[in-house]
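ligand=zinc ion
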Amino acid sequence: MIQALNLAKEIRDEITNWRRSLHKMPELGLFLPKTAEFVKRKLDRWGIEYITYRDNSGIVAHIGKEGGKVLALRADMDALPIKEETGLDYASENENMHACGHDCHTAMLLGVAKILKEHEDQLNGYVKLFFQPGEEGPGGRPVMIADGCMENPKVDAIYALHVGGVGEGMKPGDITLMYGPYSAADDQFDLYVKGRGGHGASPHLCVDPVVVATTIIQTFQTIVSREIDPTEPCVITVATLQAGRGAENIISDTCYMRGTVRNSTMENRNYVLSRMEEVVKGICMAMRADYDFKLDYGYVPVVNEKHMTDMLIASAQKVLGEDGVHVGGRQGMGGEDAGFYYQLVPGCFFNLCCTTAHSDGNVYPAHNSKFTVDDSLLYKGTAVFVQAVFDYFEE
Ligand SMILES: [Zn+2]
Ligand SMILES: [Zn+2]
């Protein structure tokens, strides 16, 4: 029997230090040269084989025996274009920040790599560790899938985790997870309503795109409120609306809007996006306007599969005790590009509760310049992963 928690505890300080090293040098997007170098140096030192890709900084480490089941564990490695304001002594040394905790995910997965390699002879299966760039953008399907990370050998299932807040009734270092949808489908749209401009005092000689656009916005909201099951979350937000240049007496030629659409399921997502297009077309036709509507397909929902979730709960309880594992909670409406992996194979995505107060006493959310994590707890995430790997292969 593997002593996952003890093994992770033995390298607790190392995991913390890796995280802090990564935290100082955040990188954005698909190319993370320093971060990837850091990961590769560790893998080399531990004698772990890995694959890299030409068009991005993704790394897939391989540990175990081929021929049996294949489990993937995924950590994202990229940061955000935010100027850090934590004041910590290991704060970012450049203009960007690990404000979503991906430095923590990378450090935890490095801990998993080290432990699994040391116990490779006890592994009855094959583990692929995905160190993935580009989660925060440029968006779309993770490049590593296109590069074949799910094949050779073919991945059967996946686990991933994200750092998260400590909710009511939870202790720092606990984990939370849920059955079914975890994150939302996340799509963007751009719409130009094309009318005919003219004098503000003569609307009958014009086609006012502002009135058309506002009618469209109102009708978008009735898709949410009148067409989607009210127990299934759906959001349409028009975040940008632009027309005119500040005049009070000119009807504009065009009105531009841009926004985001969030859905809990693929069925709702496909339905809502197609209805939005119909609404735009129908209202523009009825109101004599023209339009240019562009959908930008983003992330698909992460949906936790029942059996993988059952197994992860059991593994996490072995490591953290029953009171360290919290099942339930509500799906978030944020996007997470891991959804593309979960479309291909069953998996479970869980959270490690480890955000903590900034020195000003407030707890800041991810994507905030004062976002702070208690990185002395990261070994618990490593421990849950290690236990989950062994349990998956014993099953
Ligand atoms: Zn994020
Ligand atoms: Zn994130």
